Each structure stands twice: as C-alpha cells, then as structure tokens.
C-alpha cells in the first residue's frame, strides 16, 4: 500500500495526464530532449526523486517521495541543486496520504501539508495549477525573478568586478573581467570532476578552492599554466596584468572568496547555498559572461540573452530538421557563444539518441569540428565561446577522456586576427577555409553608429553591393550578409531589432531583403521587451527564413507566405516558457509585408478588419497630407547642443519659450504658466529651427507619452519656441479652432488607439511618439465629412472646451477626455460602432497593461477571466460580423449564438460559443445540445491537449472549432484579451474561412 500511494497521489493531481511531460526515474530520458542532461542529473540526484514534470518542454516540478512532516532543512541539498540549475520552480514532497510544496529559492518556508482528500486536478499543486496562475497566486514570493540563480550571479559578478577595480585605472576593468572568467570556468571544471585527482597528482596541483583560501599565488599561477596546456588555449593562462593572480591583494582575495560562497557582495548578507557548478548550465555561464565582454553601460542586463530565448532560437533553427547533427551551424557574431553552445548540445543529444548511447570524446570532437562554426571581432568573446564548447564536449562523458581537446580558435571559432569579421573579404566562408552554413543562427549587433563615427566595415561591404542601410543599423547589413552566405536550401534564424520590420525608415531595407529570402516565421516579442531584457530600449523579433530561389519569382508558383507570431506577456515566463494562443498566430503573404510594413505593428494588437477601417480613414487624409496640401509646417524645435555647433538664439529671444519638462502630464489644454521668457542660460544654441514652427495656430507634442501610452498634445496660439524634444504641427488651415480640435483628437482614446496600430515607437519601443509617426495618423477637414456642417459644429464645440480648459486655474489631471468630447471626436471621424467599442476596450484594458516590467505585473486584467457580460458582447459581435460577411458573399439565412462556460473554475476551463445557421433568417429559441462537444473537450483534456502543445520553441494553447451539422462550436481559454471585441472580428474571419475550406473539401 505504501509503495503505491505516491503514484496514486501523483495521478490524482493530474501529473500523469500528459505522459510525455512526466519523466519518471525508472524510464530512460530521450537524449534529444532540449534538457536531457539536466533531467538525467535530477533523476539521479537521490533515490527519493520520483520524477520531473515539464511544462511545454521546460522542467517545472520535481516530485519527491518523502514525509511532508520532516523538518525545514530536510530537502535543502536537493533545493540547492534545483536552484543552481535554474529550471525547476517547485519541489513537491509526496507522502503516503499528503503532499507538501517547497519553494526553490533559499530562506523561504514550505507550504502547508495538504491531506490527500483535499487534492484533485483543480488544486494549486496539481499539474493544472502549475500550468496556470494558481500556484503563483498562492505563493507569489516563490517566483521572485531576482532570486533566480542567473539574476543573483549577474548581480554578484557586477559587484565583484567593481570591487576588484576600485581605485585602479580604467584598463583594470578588462583584467577584472578576465580574472572572473577564470574563476567561473575553473570552478566549473572542478565541480564537474573534469580536473581529476590523477591529473592534479601528476602535475603537483591542489584544488582551486584550497589555493584560493591559502592565498597560494604561485600555486594558482601553476594551476592555470597547466590548464592552458590541457585545454589547448590561452583563455585560462596566467597573465601579467594589473589583476593577475600574483598581484592580488588580501582584500581582492576576500572578494573572490565571498563571491564563490554566493554571499551578497552588495549587501553583505551571507548565503545558505554556494554556487554549485555541477548544475549551473553551460549556456548560463557563457550568456552571463557576455555581459562583461563589451564596455559596461547602465543597463548591463540588456546584453544578456535569456536562456529560454536562446533555446527558442535553436528550436526554430532546427524546426522540422530530423537530423540536427547533420547540419552545419554558423554564428557570425557569436559573442560568448550561448547560441552555438545550445545548438551543439541539441545536435549532440540527437546524435546520441540515434546511436542509443553517449558518445565518447573522439566522436563528440568530430561532430563539433565538422558542424559548429562562429566568429566575432572580439577576441575575448571567441575564447569564451571556445571554452564553453569544450565544456560541452566534456559534459557527462561515458568514460574519462584519453585524447586532447581539439583546437577551435582559428579552425572553428574565428576572431579578428583570423578574419572573423563577418563582413571581411577574407572571411573563412568566403576563402573556403570553413564550409557554408546550412543553418545560420545569430543575435547580431544592433548598433547604430553616431554620424561622427567613420565608415564601418559593414558599410563598405554594403556600398559595394549597392545596399541601403537605414540609420546605419548594422543588424540590417548582417541580415543581407547571412542571406548571401547560407547554403541554398539552408535556413537562417536571427534575433533582430523589431524596428527593422516596423519602422518606416527601414521600408527600403525590408523590400530589398525580402527579395533575397523567403520568410517562414516572424516572432515579434515587443510586449515582452522589459521581461526578456530588463532596461532594454528596443524589442526583438526572431526571424526565420530561407534563401530565395529562382522558383520563388515564378508567376505560376503559390505566393510565398509566412507565419506571423505575436506573443503577449504571459505567466508561462514563471517557468521559463514562452506561451502563445491561437489568436497570436496568423499566416500572411510575404508580399503583404513588402507592400505594407504597418501590418507588423497593426496586427500585433489589432484585427484585419480594424486595419482595413483605419486604412480607409488614412486614405481620406493624414496629418502629414493636410499640412502638405495647405502649406503648413511640421518638425522638431531647435537643438540646444549638437557637437561643437554654437550660434546666437537670435529672434528666439523675443518670444516666449515652452520648456517640455514644464508641460502638464496630459493635454490638450496648455496652461499660461508654461509660456516663459527665453532662458538666460541659453546664450548659445546649436540651431534655431524653422521659424514657422513657433508661430501661428499649431499643436505641440512632446516625445514622451503618458505611462498608459497616451499622446500628450497641446494647442498653442501664441508665438513661442520649443526644443527638438517636441514636435510642432502647423496645419495651415482652420485657425485656432482646428488646432485645438487636433490637439484634443491626439489626446483622445481614439488617438491613443491609432498610435497603438500605427506608431512603432509608441508601443513597440519606449513609450514615446516620433514626429514622422504623428504625420501618418489619420486626419480630415470638416469638408470631408458626410455632413460638413455637423463636422464644423463638432470642431467648434471641442475647441470651446479646450479654450475653457486653458483658462482654468485648477485642473484635475486625467488621461481621459470628458465622455462627450470623446464621442464627438469619434463622430467627426465617422468610425463604426464596433470600432468605437474596440477603442474603449483598448483604452481601459490594453494600453495600461502593455509591456509589463515585472512578472508580478503580468497578472493584469488582460490575463484574467472575462465576465459574462464580456462573453455575451463577444458573441453578439461575432454574430454581427458573420452577418456582414454573409451579406457581402450573397449568402442566405441568419445566425444565432449561445454562450456558456465549460468547466468553470477549473484550471483549463473554456469559454464556448455555439453558432447555429437558421434558414431564411428565422430565429429559434431552442437550446443547442453540447453533449458531444463536452465529451470531445473532456477527451482532449485527458490527453493533455487543452494544456498546450509545443509549436517549435513556443507553447501553443489552441482554440477548438467543431462543426456539427448547421452548428459551429467555438471554444478557447478563459483569458480576457481573447474575448475582446477585436478578437471577435478575427474569429469571425476564422470561422468564415473554415466554412469555405470545408465546402471546398466536400
């Protein structure tokens, strides 16, 4: 009985519902699993480990047989291992009649003991609770990202280097980076048993921690000299730098001591658990150290490629490739090698799975030297890459190595001295020294050099090929170079700045590049910018493509299409997984992207129907076209500084000045106190700007938006200057009234909604709006309205309200304009009632929750369950949209909809809409039977399919669409953003396409 109870409890909690996700101790691990090595170590850690449950391929729960009533320190050793590994989020102790959950971070108490009769699949400790928000809601402090091993290690690395270089010259920074790299990697070698006792005895060496504790500088020098010879490289060689081992002070040795003990170097607090490099992943070390290879800036963490993003890129690179070990993989900007390391581990796992055994060092070396290549202009980066790959070779060898490690530098990994610059005419691929890649995977530099910097190598290369490189962005040149070098039939997978596919300045690049490649997948991580890269200014996209062929240009060929994927912030990040829903994935023609790059942004949060209506508005006119037609003016204000330029302010002294920092948090009324005399301290400026921007009726818009992504626009009717941190829009028509109306329009909910769809800087990057983006927003004159008199009356009414607000002495800041003003603005633009509802939903739910900065803020109203009112509104919109499609297609009959919830309150409950076609438009009040669909959903749940499936490197939670005679049942997860009006428009189109495809098949 005792032997079967843990298994029974595991089953009761649903961990066996998805057999492939539960890795049991008595079953062999698939060597091709992305985390095969980590899973094997966990299952071999100690006899009490029953198994490991993964969520979408990422280990999440460690199941342990034990007594839930044991003391607080009973599982410390196992928790320390799990913490160092950085994957599993929960330790679940399973007893005879109860379970107890333990956190992974140290210094946190376990959860209460829960008796068996309280446990089922709806419990927070169940498999479904782990997959949902239930576990995090119950124990939020267990999921603090700052307590994860990568964050702790990164913080301590930063402080350790600062302490090592304190009081020394700037050149000591490089020495400190080199020294800490040696500490990390020697610790790794020793902890993993790669520096054996026999090797130490033969060479007369002592363990690193002993040498460090005794301050044995000569012994340390000798250790590193021997390691240099052993590992065929100079990365571990002793140096004569300022911070060489022979020159370290007692205080500096103390820093290294405390670092290895995992003490908090900033706060001084001692740690319960030291770093254990037996379990810290190789990719984590190489990824973290990349932070210190470049000159350190304020946001160091922005340079660290998260491990799960690297794994996703590798997943996408090998997607559909049945034999990864046969590919030739190149990273032309390898940095410290996190992508190459992850790729090689994946190839090695596949090769070992095919062989049915672990490969020896000689076989691994042949695989590595024949199939993995990289380059970088940074020599230190190449050394770290080579050493990380050496560690992969030595990891979990079936027997001690008997041969030396292969030379990688200059043969597989190329630095500047070996023509590793990706744009070099003597690059190893060009010269034939290395093979062309069948897979090119890279996170290229995103640098945009300042105008004062001279011509770069990539610009010389681009000019020779007559390629236009927008904003001097090296990543775009890199994309061209990869497409040129990859083998025909190969694949490229790049982590690119999102702006390269969305900003108007990059349109020419995009048009030309899409002639060179055939896109297969574009994954836009804009909403995850601050979660993937804390402090990052720009979001990323993972771009997967293949070199174009002559057949692609054939008129008889099916037009090339690609999958556009738009992940939103999701609680899956708690478990290092990236989750998408069916609505986050759509298929587009490549020609659509060439003709209209606005799709990349517009379809992130909007539907195809919305974009069509917005485009109709733009065809009637934009702010830019109105200004051009009426000889208005637009642009930024004067520059205070620009290099060495200095001129007198001249005529600007005569006028008032508006300091952007003194502007109210919201518009559109500009208080009189914002117009101040010319600042005395500005005796010289770099340029005066266009005089026309400082006089006449106009709108000024500071670059910065509100925290909820609202535009801050202000009507100005008096002469006054502004700096280039503001844009000025002088329409040239309509006088003060139209300027005030335009300012109110930009500040309105409708203006914010349009920025969401049309202005990349507003929602994809930092919260700002640029001058060029303002010019693209729709605008019309009263004469273009279907009722010009009514339009003119609206302009006057809104302008009167703005003028009155300008005179108010006391105001209550509000991002929303009065409801009647919002309604008048929407009436002026004659938007549809459906779009009006969408505008309100976007303002209330979407904009305040864009780009969350912390995991805690991911649990927003957007991710919660919809209300019954919202479900019914969704169903009504769905029916209305289907009716509209029926009329357009000359169809017959009408539609009825019933909405309900399947398994409410359960972890995998679904909202469901049943749509029935009624002949001749007759309506019926009879209820639709859902028994068959209920049975199908239950079956899907039992097979784990409602929990999500792996889609490349992403976890996909799909919709369920079932056609039963004249009724279509449509079900999807109870996540509010999936039930908004915009989603109903997309889903209606999905249903129409399904019906037509079914008819064609029939």
Break the fold down into its secondary structure elements and pairings.
Layout: H1 5-12, E1 22-24, H2 36-43, E2 49-55, E3 58-65, H3 76-85, E4 90-94, E5 98-102, E6 114-115, H4 127-131, H5 134-138, H6 149-165, H7 172-191, H8 197-203, H9 208-213, H10 217-230, H11 250-260, H12 282-289, H13 307-318, E7 329-331, H14 338-355, H15 361-371, E8 372-375, H16 379-394, E9 413-414, H17 428-431, E10 439-442, H18 457-464, H19 474-485, E11 491-497, H20 499-502, H21 507-516, E12 517-524, H22 529-532, E13 540-547, E14 561-565, E15 579-581, E16 585-589, H23 590-595, H24 598-605, H25 608-620, H26 623-629, E17 633-636, E18 656-658, E19 675-676, E20 698-702, E21 714-716, E22 720-721, E23 726-730, H27 735-747, H28 749-758, H29 760-763, H30 771-775, H31 788-807, H32 819-829, H33 833-846, H34 868-888, E24 894-902, E25 910-918, H35 931-942, E26 949-951, E27 954-957, E28 960-964, E29 967-973, H36 981-1001
Parallel strand pairs: 3-4, 7-8, 7-10, 8-9, 10-11, 12-14, 15-27, 18-22
Antiparallel strand pairs: 1-2, 2-3, 4-5, 5-6, 11-13, 12-13, 14-16, 17-23, 18-19, 20-21, 20-23, 24-25, 25-29, 26-27, 28-29
Helix pairs in contact: 6-7, 6-11, 7-16, 12-14, 12-16, 13-14, 14-16, 27-31, 28-33, 31-32, 34-36
Spatial arrangement of strands, main beta sheet? 9-8-7-10-11-13-12-14-16
Radius of gyration: 31 Å
Structural class: alpha/beta
CATH topology of the largest domain: Rossmann fold
What is the straight-line distance between the termini?
Answer: 55 Å
Which homologous superfamily in CATH is the superfamily of the largest domain?
Answer: Vaccinia Virus protein VP39
Average predicted local confidence, pLDDT: 87
Main sheet characteristics: 9 strands, mixed
Report the top-level CATH class of the largest domain.
Alpha Beta
What is the total domain count? 5
């Amino acid at each position: 009985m005792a032997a079967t109870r843990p298994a029974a409890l595991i089953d009761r909690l649903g961990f066996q519902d998805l057999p492939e996700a539960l890795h049991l101790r008595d079953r062999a691990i698939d060597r091709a699993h992305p985390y095969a090595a980590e899973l094997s170590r966990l299952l071999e850690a100690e006899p009490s480990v029953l198994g490991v449950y993964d969520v979408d391929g990422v280990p999440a729960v460690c199941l342990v047989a034990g007594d839930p009533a044991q003391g607080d320190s009973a599982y410390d050793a196992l928790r320390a291992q799990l913490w160092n590994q950085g994957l599993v989020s929960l330790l679940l102790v399973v007893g005879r009649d109860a379970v107890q959950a333990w956190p992974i971070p140290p210094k946190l108490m376990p959860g209460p003991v829960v008796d068996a009769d309280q446990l089922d699949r709806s419990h927070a400790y169940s498999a479904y609770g782990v997959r949902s928000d239930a576990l995090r809601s119950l124990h939020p402090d267990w999921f603090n990202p700052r307590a994860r091993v990568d964050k702790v290690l990164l913080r301590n690395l930063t402080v350790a280097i600062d302490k090592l270089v304190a009081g020394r010259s700037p050149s000591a920074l490089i020495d400190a980076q080199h020294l800490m790299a040696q500490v990390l990697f020697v610790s790794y070698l020793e902890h993993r048993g790669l520096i054996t006792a026999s090797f130490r005895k033969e060479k007369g060496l002592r363990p690193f921690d002993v040498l460090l504790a005794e301050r044995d500088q000569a012994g340390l020098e000798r250790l590193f000299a021997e390691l240099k010879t052993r590992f065929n490289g100079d990365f571990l060689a002793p140096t004569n730098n300022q911070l060489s081992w022979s020159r370290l002070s007692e205080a500096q040795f103390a820093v290294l001591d405390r670092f290895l003990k995992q003490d908090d170097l900033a706060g001084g607090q001692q740690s319960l658990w030291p770093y254990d490099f037996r379990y810290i992943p190789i990719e984590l070390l190489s990824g973290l150290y990349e932070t210190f290879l470049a000159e350190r800036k304020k946001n160091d963490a922005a340079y660290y490629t998260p491990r799960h993003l690297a794994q996703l890129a590798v997943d996408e690179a090998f997607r559909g490739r049945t034999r990864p070990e046969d590919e030739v993989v190149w990273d032309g900007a390898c940095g410290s090698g996190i992508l190459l390391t992850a790729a090689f581990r994946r190839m090695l796992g596949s090769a070992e799975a095919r062989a049915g055994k672990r490969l020896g060092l000689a076989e691994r070396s042949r695989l590595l030297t024949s199939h993995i290549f990289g380059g970088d202009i940074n020599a230190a980066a190449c050394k770290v890459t080579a050493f990380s790959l050496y560690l992969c070779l030595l990891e979990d060898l079936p027997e001690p190595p008997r041969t030396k490690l292969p030379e990688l530098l200059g043969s597989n990994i190329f630095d500047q001295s070996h023509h590793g610059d990706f744009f070099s005419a003597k690059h190893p691929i060009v010269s034939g020294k290395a093979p062309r890649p069948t897979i090119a995977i890279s996170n290229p530099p995103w640098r945009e050099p300042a105008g004062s910097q001279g011509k770069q190598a990539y610009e010389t290369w681009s000019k020779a090929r007559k390629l236009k490189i927008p904003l001097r962005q090296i990543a775009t040149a890199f994309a061209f170079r990869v497409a040129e070098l990859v083998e025909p039939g190969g694949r490229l997978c790049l982590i690119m700045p999102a702006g390269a596919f969305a900003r108007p300045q990059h349109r020419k690049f995009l048009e030309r590049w899409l002639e060179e490649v055939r896109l297969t997948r574009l994954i836009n991580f804009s909403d995850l910018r601050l979660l993937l890269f804390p402090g990052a200014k720009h979001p990323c996209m993972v771009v997967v493509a293949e070199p174009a062929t002559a057949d692609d240009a054939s008129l008889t060929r099916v037009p090339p299409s690609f999958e556009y994927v738009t992940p939103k912030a999701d609680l899956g990040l708690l478990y290092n997984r990236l989750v998408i829903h069916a609505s986050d994935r759509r298929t587009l023609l490549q020609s659509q992207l060439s003709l209209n790059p606005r799709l990349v942004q517009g379809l992130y949060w909007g539907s195809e129907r919305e974009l069509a209506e917005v485009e109709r508005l733009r065809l009637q006119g934009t702010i830019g076209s109105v200004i051009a037609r009426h000889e208005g003016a637009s642009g930024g204000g004067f520059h205070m500084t620009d290099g060495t330029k200095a001129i007198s302010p001249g005529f600007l002294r005569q006028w008032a000045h508006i300091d952007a920092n003194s502007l109210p948090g919201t518009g559109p009324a500009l208080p009189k106190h914002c117009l101040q005399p010319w600042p005395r301290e500005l005796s010289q400026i770099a340029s005066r700007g266009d005089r026309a921007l400082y006089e006449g009726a106009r709108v000024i818009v500071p670059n910065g938006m509100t925290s909820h992504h609202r535009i801050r626009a202000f009507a100005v009717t008096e002469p006054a200057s502004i700096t280039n941190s503001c844009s000025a829009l002088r329409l040239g028509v309509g006088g003060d009234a139209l300027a005030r109306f335009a300012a109110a329009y930009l500040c309105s909910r409708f203006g914010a909604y349009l920025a969401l769809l049309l202005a990349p800087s507003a929602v994809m990057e930092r919260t700002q709006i640029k001058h060029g983006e303002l010019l693209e927003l729709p605008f019309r004159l009263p004469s273009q309205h279907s009722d010009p008199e009514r339009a003119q009356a609206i302009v006057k009414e809104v302008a009167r309200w703005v003028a009155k607000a300008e005179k108010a002495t006391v105001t209550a800041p509000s991002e929303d304009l009065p409801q009647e003003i919002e309604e008048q603005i929407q009436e002026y633009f004659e938007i549809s009632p459906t779009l009006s509802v969408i505008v309100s939903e976007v303002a209330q739910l979407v904009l305040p929750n864009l780009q969350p900065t912390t995991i805690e803020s991911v649990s927003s109203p957007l991710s919660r369950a919809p209300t019954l009112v919202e479900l019914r509104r969704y169903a009504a919109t769905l029916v209305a949209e289907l009716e509209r499609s029926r009329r357009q297609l000359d169809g017959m009959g009408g539609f009825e909809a019933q909405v309900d919830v399947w398994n409410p309150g359960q972890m995998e409950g679904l909202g469901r809409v049943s749509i029935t076609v009624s002949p001749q438009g007759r309506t019926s009040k009879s209820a639709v039977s859902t028994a068959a669909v209920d049975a199908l959903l239950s079956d899907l749940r039992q097979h784990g399919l409602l929990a999500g499936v792996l889609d490349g490197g992403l976890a996909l939670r799909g919709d369920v669409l079932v056609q039963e005679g004249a009724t279509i049942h449509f079900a999807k997860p109870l996540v509010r953003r999936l039930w908004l009006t915009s989603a109903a428009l997309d889903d209606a189109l999905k249903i129409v396409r399904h019906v037509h495809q079914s008819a064609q098949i029939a």
